[in-house]
Amino acid sequence: MKVLFSLLTLSIVSQSLLAQTKPAVRNSTTTTRPAVSRTTAAPAKKPAPAAQYTAPQTANATPAAQPQQQPAAVYAAPQTQAAPVSGPAQYSAPATVDNSRFRFGFRLGANSSTIGGFDPANFGEGVKAARVIGFHGGVMFNFGGPNFSVQPEILYTQYGVKMTAGPDYLQLKYNLIEVPVLFKVSFGQPNLRFFINAGPVGSYTMGGTISVQEAGQSGSQKIDITGSGRFSFGVSGGAGVALQAGPGAVQLEARYSYLFSSNDDGTKLKPQNAMLSVGYLFPLGGR
């Protein structure tokens, strides 16, 4: 009986112990599960917003940087295109085109002249008139545009005539200051232009020389010119080409002048001069 009582007591005690321990375990599980879920949920939610917050920052920074770089590149492109346009220097180079309103230059060349208005036969049988070689030189002034301009000149030039009869001759050579005022028309390319000119001319005879050769002997003397025979007037005209060289242009020109003059005895003389010259005309002042 003692043994049976002790076994019954142990079973009752064990059941009571089991009844007390099972709820405790259940309560511990129920209390720990929420704690675990809270502790696990809290770290999971905190990194997620941090990752979502940093991701928009990088996404927003990239588009914001792109609009700032694109306008800079677009604005730089017109600057490179505006650089050639900002060079009106390209327009003065073809520039090479002269837009100055005033030009100055000089010319120098050779003459082949004669004097008409008389009959060489009056000097003797078999006398013929021949041309005299001389030279000219002076300065030029040009006013106007590149296509049309007015060009006055001041030249020292020589006119003359030579009358020959076999080996003998009589030569007259006059030294003149000649002032032509020419109306000039130019055309062509900037570096190569052609021109024609024509206009009135006035001259003043400073003096002259007469040279004679007869029977193997020769001599010369000065010619006395009175006031009435010093002045003469006429026309002059020519044509040529202008080659661009440096700031100005080299002028190659052929010209012919035709004057009217008279002596004290009323003789009407007609000095004529063919001129071939080279010159240089360059702009002065602003372009």
UniProtKB/TrEMBL annotation:
<dbReference type="InterPro" id="IPR011250">
    <property type="entry name" value="OMP/PagP_B-barrel"/>
</dbReference>
<feature type="signal peptide">
    <location>
        <begin position="1"/>
        <end position="19"/>
    </location>
</feature>
<dbReference type="Pfam" id="PF13568">
    <property type="entry name" value="OMP_b-brl_2"/>
</dbReference>
<feature type="compositionally biased region" description="Low complexity">
    <location>
        <begin position="28"/>
        <end position="79"/>
    </location>
</feature>
<dbReference type="InterPro" id="IPR025665">
    <property type="entry name" value="Beta-barrel_OMP_2"/>
</dbReference>
<feature type="domain" description="Outer membrane protein beta-barrel">
    <location>
        <begin position="89"/>
        <end position="261"/>
    </location>
</feature>
<feature type="region of interest" description="Disordered">
    <location>
        <begin position="22"/>
        <end position="79"/>
    </location>
</feature>
<keyword id="KW-0732">Signal</keyword>
<protein>
    <submittedName>
        <fullName>Outer membrane protein beta-barrel domain-containing protein</fullName>
    </submittedName>
</protein>
